[in-house]
Write a structure and sequence with these properties.
rod-shaped, alpha+beta, Helix Hairpins
Length: 546
C-alpha cells in the first residue's frame, strides 16, 4: 500500500471518491440499459412508414395548417406549393431530419445518418379532415388517387382521432404497389389533429438493419448523457475531494488527540484527558470510555499509593513494636534473672528477711511481665478484629464504683491520691462488654493515679449526652504538652520519655483503651493543660438506643 494511503484520512477520502465514481458509472450503465430496452421496443421495421409520416407531419405542420384553414378550396396555389414540397421531400431534394417520436420526451426512437432524408418512399400525401387530398408528391398533386387509396381511410381516421402509436398507424400490403402505408396526424397549436400525412414505402428494412440502427441510435443517444455525466463527475470529484478531506481530517484529528492522550497516559501523566466536544458518534464514545478508564486508573493508582504508604507505615510500626516489646520484656527478665542468680549463689549465706525480699522482687517482676504479655495479646487481638465481646446492657455506676473501690486503697496508700466517682442519676445502661469496660476504666484510673502528684485528686464521672453514655476520668496531675497529646493513644508511647517502666508503665494502657472502646462502637478523646491535669473520655452507645 502506498505510504499516503496508510493514513486514515486519505483512506476515507479515497473511499468517498470510489463511492462517487461507482455511483456515476452505475448511472451511465443504467441509462444505457434503459435506452436499449426502450429503443428495442420501438425499433420494429414495420413501423417505418408511420415514423416517416411523423417526421413529415412535424416538418410541414405550418404549411399543412395553412392549407387546412383555407376552407374555400379556391387556393390552388397553396395546394400546388404543398404538393411541390412533398415531391421534393419524396425525391430527397429537400432534406428532412428525424425528430422525437410520439410520447418520447427527449430521445429519438430512430435515427438515420446525420443529414439524411427519408428512404424507400413511394409517395407522400396530406389528407384533410374531410378526406380529400390536400397535396401529394405525385405529379397529379391534389388529384392523386392511387389504387390503394381505399386502404388510407382506416389509417387516416385513426390518425385524426388522435392516435400516436406507430403500430396502429401502419398497414402492410401484399401484391403490387407499395409494401406498406403509414399515417400520422398533423396537430395544431392546441394539440388537436387537423390533417393526416400518408407515407407509402416501397419496401420495409430488414430486421438486421434495425438491429444495426438500434446500436447506432444508442451511441448517439448516450453520447450527450455521457458528456453531461462526465461534467458532473468532474464537479463531484472536486467537491467531494474537498468535503471528504475536511471530514476525514476532522475525524482523524480526533483520533490523533486520543492517541496523544494515550501516549501521555502511558508515560505516567494520569491527569491527561481527551476533549469530547459533545460528540455522540463512535469516536466520541471511545473518548468518553478513555476518560472513564483514565479516571479509574488514576483512582487505582492513588489507592495503590495509599496502600503502599499504609503498608510501609505498618511495617515501620511492626518493627517499632518488636523493638519496644523486646525492650519491655528485657527489663523484667533481667531483674528476675539477676535476683535468681543472687539467690542461687548466696542462698546459704542469706538470712530469711533478705531471701524474702529477693523473692518479692522476683514475684513483682513476674506479675509485671505477665500483665505486659496479657496487654500485648489483648491489643493484637483487638487490632485484628478477633476480640470476642459479650455486648449486653451494663450499669456504668456499678462498674465505676467497682473499679474505684479496687484501686482506692492502693492509690491512697502509695500515692496519697484521692479517688471519687460522680454518676448522673438514672443514667441509662450502656450496651457494652462489662469485663472490657471495667478494664478500660481501670487502665484510665491507673494512668491518672500514676501521673498525679501526692495529694492530688482523680474523679470518675459518667453521664449521657446526645444519645450516648460518656465516661470521663479527670485528674489534677502534671498534664500533657499539646504536641504530645495526639500520640497518647499510640502503643508504647510515653508522654515523658525519661520515666522508666516502673513509674511510667509500658505505654500500652491507653492503646488498649482505644482499641476496646472502638470495638464496642465508641470513641475516645483526651484533653490536658500542663500543670493543671488531664481529662480522658470515651463514649458508648446506650442499650435503649441500640
Amino acid at each position: 500500500m502506498p505510504r499516503a494511503l496508510s493514513r486514515l484520512r486519505w483512506q476515507l477520502t479515497a473511499s468517498h471518491l470510489v463511492a462517487i465514481a461507482f455511483t456515476l458509472v452505475s448511472m451511465i450503465v443504467a441509462l444505457v440499459l434503459i435506452s436499449s430496452v426502450w429503443l428495442a421496443r420501438n425499433s420494429e421495421p414495420t413501423s417505418q412508414p408511420a415514423d416517416d409520416a411523423r417526421v413529415v407531419a412535424n416538418a410541414m405542420q405550418g404549411l399543412v395548417l395553412a392549407e387546412v384553414r383555407d376552407t374555400t378550396g379556391e387556393s390552388a396555389s397553396g395546394r400546388a406549393d404543398l404538393s411541390r414540397v412533398l415531391r421534393l421531400v419524396a425525391t430527397g431534394d429537400l432534406r428532412v431530419l428525424s425528430g422525437p417520436p410520439a410520447g418520447a420526451p427527449d430521445a429519438a426512437r430512430r435515427f438515420a445518418p446525420l443529414g439524411s432524408t427519408l428512404t424507400n418512399v413511394a409517395y407522400l400525401a396530406v389528407i384533410g379532415p374531410d378526406g380529400r387530398v390536400l397535396g401529394s408528391s405525385d405529379p397529379a398533386g391534389d388529384a392523386f388517387a392511387p389504387p390503394e387509396r381505399a386502404e388510407w381511410t382506416p389509417l387516416v381516421n385513426t390518425a385524426l382521432a388522435g392516435e400516436h402509436d406507430p403500430a396502429r398507424l401502419v398497414a402492410a400490403r401484399a401484391g403490387g404497389g407499395p409494401a406498406a402505408v403509414g399515417a400520422y396526424p398533423v396537430l395544431d397549436q392546441t394539440g388537436r389533429p387537423l390533417a393526416a400525412v400518408v407515407v407509402a414505402t416501397t419496401e420495409l428494412p430488414a430486421a438486421s438493419g434495425g438491429f444495426v440502427d438500434l446500436w447506432h441510435a444508442l451511441a448517439l443517444f448516450t453520447a450527450a448523457s455521457i458528456v453531461i455525466l462526465g461534467g458532473a463527475f468532474l464537479f463531484a470529484l472536486a467537491s467531494s475531494s474537498l468535503v471528504g478531506y475536511v471530514l476525514a481530517r476532522r475525524l482523524v484529528g480526533r483520533l490523533e488527540r486520543l492517541g496523544r492522550a494515550a501516549e501521555a497516559l502511558a508515560a505516567g501523566d494520569l491527569s491527561r484527558r481527551v476533549e469530547v466536544d459533545g460528540d455522540s458518534d463512535e469516536v466520541g464514545q471511545l473518548a468518553r470510555r478513555f476518560n472513564h478508564m483514565a479516571d479509574q486508573l488514576a483512582d487505582t493508582v492513588a489507592e495503590l499509593a495509599a496502600a503502599k504508604q499504609r503498608a510501609e507505615a505498618a511495617l515501620r510500626a511492626k518493627r517499632e513494636l518488636v523493638a519496644n516489646v523486646s525492650h519491655e520484656l528485657r527489663t523484667p527478665l533481667a531483674s528476675i534473672r539477676g535476683h535468681t542468680e543472687s539467690l542461687q549463689l548466696r542462698g546459704p549465706d542469706l538470712d530469711a528477711e533478705t531471701r524474702c525480699a529477693y523473692l518479692e522482687i522476683i514475684l513483682r517482676e513476674t506479675e509485671q511481665l505477665s500483665r505486659l504479655i496479657d496487654d500485648l495479646f489483648a491489643l493484637s487481638t483487638a487490632e485484628a478484629g478477633g476480640l470476642a465481646l459479650a455486648l449486653r446492657p451494663v450499669a456504668l455506676d456499678e462498674v465505676a464504683d467497682e473499679v474505684v473501690s479496687s484501686i482506692r486503697s492502693v492509690a491512697r496508700g502509695e500515692r496519697r491520691v484521692t479517688l471519687i466517682t460522680e454518676v448522673e442519676p438514672d443514667l441509662p445502661a450502656a450496651l457494652a462488654d462489662r469485663q472490657r469496660i471495667a478494664q478500660v476504666v481501670a487502665n484510665l484510673v491507673r494512668n491518672a493515679v500514676r501521673h498525679t502528684p501526692e495529694g492530688g485528686l482523680v474523679a470518675v464521672r459518667a453521664c449521657h449526652r446526645d444519645g450516648q453514655a460518656v465516661v470521663t476520668v479527670e485528674d489534677t496531675g502534671v498534664g500533657i504538652p499539646a504536641d504530645q497529646l495526639p500520640h497518647v493513644f499510640e502503643r508504647f508511647y510515653r508522654a515523658d520519655p525519661s520515666r522508666d517502666r516502673a513509674s511510667g508503665g509500658a505505654g500500652l494502657g491507653l492503646a488498649i483503651v482505644r482499641e476496646l472502646v472502638e470495638a464496642m462502637g465508641g470513641e475516645v478523646s483526651a484533653e490536658s493543660v500542663v500543670g493543671q491535669g488531664s481529662r480522658f473520655s470515651f463514649t458508648l452507645p446506650l442499650a435503649g438506643a441500640s
